[in-house]
Specification:
By secondary structure, this protein is of the alpha+beta class.
Length: 623
C-alpha cells in the first residue's frame, strides 16, 4: 500500500500500481480495518484514558473511515458524525451522557488574517487548569470537525481567562467569562458575542432510527448511466443460427438446469413472449453447464425440450462466459463470480445497458428496451436511480484493468478491444506520466500473449505503441525485438534489442537474443560481446554460456569456447549439446579421455546427436 502521497503534482508508476493493487483488494471484499469495532476513549483526568466503547454505544463493527466532532444539538457537548466505507455510509452518534458538566464554545472570524482564523490558538484557564486548542483547516482522515472550539470546564460557572492569539501575532484577552454559553469573536472587536442556541427540537432534528435486518440478496437491476461498449463476439445456438452482438436489442442470459430461479424465469419469458417480442428484443439463453456429447448439456436439452422456448438458446462458450463475467465484476465493483441467473441487455450499437442479477420479468425487459433508443444524455437521465444533476460526466470503468483480466483468461482479442478504449480515453502519449507507463506495460503484456499465440505481427503493432507511450521500458523494447525477429525482420530486431540493453544492462535475455541475431547476420565480434554481457548479467544462465561457447567454436577459437562449455555443463547437466561442445573443445585441446567421456555423456542424453556420434567415432579410430 502506498504510504505517502507524492509531494509534486505527478506520481510514480510504482505509486499508481500500489493504489491499483489496493483497490483490487477492496473489490475482493477485503478491508484495511475489517473486524475492528469503533473505539471511544474517555480522558480520566490523570493522564490516562478509559475504554468506554461498549458502554457508550459507539462500538459499531462498521468499516469506519472518518469522524467529525460537532455540537449538533447545541447542548454544550460534542456529538459525532461517522462516515463508513460499508453501510450505513453515515452514522450520527448523539452525546446524551446526561452529566452536569459545563462547557464554553468559541467561533473565530478573522479580519486581518484569513476569514476562518485558521492557525489561531485559544487558551482557556480555570483556576490552575489550562486547556489549549488550535483552529485547524483539517483534522483526521477524510473529515473536518466543526469550526467551533469547545472546552469542557467541569462544574466551573466562570472561565478565569480566555486568550486568543491570531495568526498575525496579535492577541486578545478576556477575563471572567461565563460558561454554558457559545460565543463568536471577530478579530479586533473588544467583546465576545453570545450566540443563542437553537431550540431543542430544531437542534436535535433527527429521529433515532431502528436497525432493520435486511435479508441478503444478490438480485439487482443495474442500469448503467454510461453504456459500456462490447467487443465483436458471435456464438451459434442449438438450431445452428449464429448470433452476434449489435444490430438489434439482445438479452444474453446465463442459466443452469439445476437453478429453480433460472427455470422459472425461462418459463415466464416463454409464456409472456408477446410482451418482449413487441419491443423488438431478441433473447439468447446460454447454459453454463459443461457440454456433453453433441456440444449441449443433457439436462439442459431435456429442460428446453419440455419448455419448447420461443427464444434462442445454446451453450455458453468460454469466450462469452469469461468476458461477461469480467464485465459484471467491474460493474458492481466486486470480484465475485457471476451467479445464475444473470442477464445482460445490449443495445443495437453493441453497448451494454442493463445487468440483471437474478430473474427479470418480461414487462421489465419491455420497459428497459424502450429506453435503448434514447440518446446518451436522455438515457443517463432515465437510468439514474434518483432525480438530480450529475456533478461530472459519467465515465467508463478502468478499461486497462478489464483488459488485464481478459488477458489473464487468454481472451486476447477481447482484451485488446478494452485496452484500445482505455488508450483512447488516455489521449496522446505523454512520456514519463505514470498512466502512460502503465499503458505501455499493459500493451507489452498483451503483445506477449500474441507472441505465445504465434501472432507476431499483432504483437509488433502493440509494442510499437507501447514504446511511444513509454520509451524507457526496457521490457517493451526487448519484446519488440523478439517479435520482429520472429517476423524475420533481423535488423529492426537488433535495433530494438540494443535499445533494451541500453536501458537495462542487466537484462540477460535481451543480450542473449541480441547475440543470437548478430550471429545470424554474420557479426561474430559483436555477437561475442553481447553474449559476454549476457553471462555477466546472468552468470547462472547455462544457455548464455552455451551460446557463447558455440560462437567461439564457430570462429575457430576452441580454447575460448572450452571454459564456456564447462560452465554450461555445470549449470545444465542434462543438456546434451553442451556436452557435445565440451567434448569437441577437449578433443582440440588434445584431452582425448576427457573428450570421450563428454561425448559419451552427450549420447546418453541424446542418442540421436549425430555430431557427437561422428566425433566419438573419429576419436575411437585414432590412437
Amino acid at each position: 500500500m502506498p504510504s505517502q502521497s507524492p509531494l509534486t503534482g505527478s506520481t510514480t508508476l510504482e505509486y499508481s500500481q500500489a493504489w491499483a493493487a489496493t483497490n483490487r483488494l477492496i473489490r475482493e471484499g477485503k478491508s484495511w480495518s475489517g473486524r475492528e469495532p469503533n473505539t471511544l476513549y474517555l480522558n480520566a483526568g490523570d493522564r490516562s484514558f478509559a475504554d468506554i466503547s461498549f458502554a457508550s454505544g459507539a462500538a459499531f463493527p462498521d468499516d469506519a473511515r472518518a469522524v467529525a466532532p460537532v455540537d449538533w444539538d447545541d447542548d454544550g457537548d460534542l456529538d459525532f458524525w461517522v462516515a463508513n466505507r460499508t453501510a450505513p455510509k453515515v452514522r450520527y452518534l448523539r452525546n446524551d451522557a446526561g452529566n452536569s458538566s459545563r462547557s464554553i464554545a468559541l467561533l473565530l472570524r478573522g479580519t486581518k488574517v484569513n476569514r476562518d482564523a485558521v492557525g489561531s490558538r485559544v487558551d482557556v484557564r480555570v483556576g490552575e487548569q489550562r486547556q489549549v486548542q488550535l483552529r485547524q483547516a483539517g483534522n483526521g482522515y477524510l473529515a473536518q470537525k466543526t469550526a467551533w472550539l469547545t472546552f469542557g470546564v467541569g462544574q466551573a460557572e466562570r472561565v478565569d481567562e480566555l486568550v486568543v492569539r491570531w495568526p498575525d501575532g496579535s492577541e486578545q484577552r478576556f477575563r471572567d467569562v461565563a460558561t454554558g454559553t457559545r460565543y463568536t469573536l471577530v478579530q479586533g472587536e473588544q467583546a465576545l458575542k453570545p450566540v443563542t442556541p437553537r431550540s431543542t427540537a430544531a437542534a436535535r432534528g433527527l429521529a433515532v432510527s431502528e436497525p432493520k435486518a435486511v435479508a441478503p440478496t444478490s438480485a439487482a437491476r443495474i442500469a448503467l448511466v454510461k453504456r459500456r461498449p462490447l467487443p465483436e463476439m458471435s456464438i451459434t445456438d442449438t438450431a445452428g443460427r449464429t448470433h452476434s452482438l449489435g444490430g438489434r436489442p439482445l438479452l444474453v442470459n446465463f442459466w443452469t438446469s439445476t437453478c429453480s430461479n433460472c427455470i422459472a424465469e425461462l418459463n415466464a419469458w416463454n409464456t409472456e413472449s408477446e410482451t418482449w417480442r413487441k419491443s423488438g428484443l431478441a433473447i439468447l439463453a446460454l447454459s453454463v453447464e459443461a457440454p456433453e456429447a453433441g456440444g449441449v448439456p443433457g439436462a439442459a436439452r431435456t429442460l428446453m425440450q419440455r419448455l419448447e422456448p420461443s427464444y434462442s438458446w445454446g451453450t455458453a462458450s468460454d469466450a462469452w462466459l469469461h468476458t461477461f463475467n469480467v464485465l459484471q465484476r467491474w460493474i458492481v465493483d466486486r470480484q465475485d463470480e457471476m451467479r445464475v441467473p444473470t442477464s445482460f441487455l445490449i443495445d443495437a450499437q453493441r453497448r451494454l445497458a442493463y445487468v440483471y442479477r437474478g430473474p427479470v420479468s418480461a414487462a421489465q425487459l419491455a420497459t428497459d428496451v424502450a429506453t435503448l433508443a434514447l440518446d446518451d444524455e436522455a438515457f443517463a437521465r432515465a437510468a439514474q436511480a434518483l432525480p438530480g444533476r450529475r456533478a461530472h460526466a459519467a465515465g467508463l470503468p478502468g478499461m486497462v484493468d478489464i483488459a488485464g483480466e481478459l488477458f489473464d483468461g487468454q481472451r486476447l482479442d477481447e482484451a485488446s478491444f478494452y485496452l484500445e478504449l482505455g488508450l483512447a480515453a488516455l489521449g496522446a502519449p505523454t512520456p514519463g506520466e505514470p498512466l502512460h507507463q502503465r499503458a505501455a506495460a499493459a500493451l507489452t503484456k498483451l503483445a506477449g500473449g500474441y507472441l505465445e499465440a504465434k501472432r507476431p505481427a499483432e504483437a509488433v503493432a502493440r509494442l510499437e505503441r507501447a514504446v511511444s507511450h513509454d520509451a524507457s521500458n526496457a521490457s517493451s523494447w526487448f519484446t519488440l525485438g523478439e517479435a520482429r525477429a520472429r517476423l524475420n525482420q533481423k535488423l529492426p530486431a537488433i535495433e530494438a534489442l540494443r535499445r533494451a540493453t541500453e536501458l537495462d544492462a542487466g537484462l540477460a535475455a535481451a543480450w542473449l537474443r541480441l547475440g543470437a541475431l548478430l550471429n545470424e547476420t554474420n557479426e561474430p565480434a559483436a555477437a561475442i560481446e553481447a553474449l559476454r554481457s549476457a553471462t555477466r548479467a546472468a552468470p547462472d544462465d547455462g544457455r548464455a554460456w552455451f551460446t557463447l561457447g558455440g560462437t567461439y567454436l564457430a570462429q575457430h577459437a576452441p580454447a575460448d569456447a572450452l571454459p564456456c562449455f564447462r560452465k554450461s555443463t555445470e549449470l545444465q547437466p542434462q543438456h546434451a549439446l553442451s556436452w557435445t561442445g565440451l567434448g569437441t573443445c577437449l578433443a582440440f585441446a588434445g584431452d582425448k579421455p576427457g573428450a570421450l567421456q563428454a561425448l559419451r555423456r552427450a549420447l546418453e542424453l541424446d542418442p540421436q546427436d549425430q555430431r557427437a556420434k561422428a566425433m566419438l567415432e573419429q576419436l575411437q579410430s585414432t590412437r
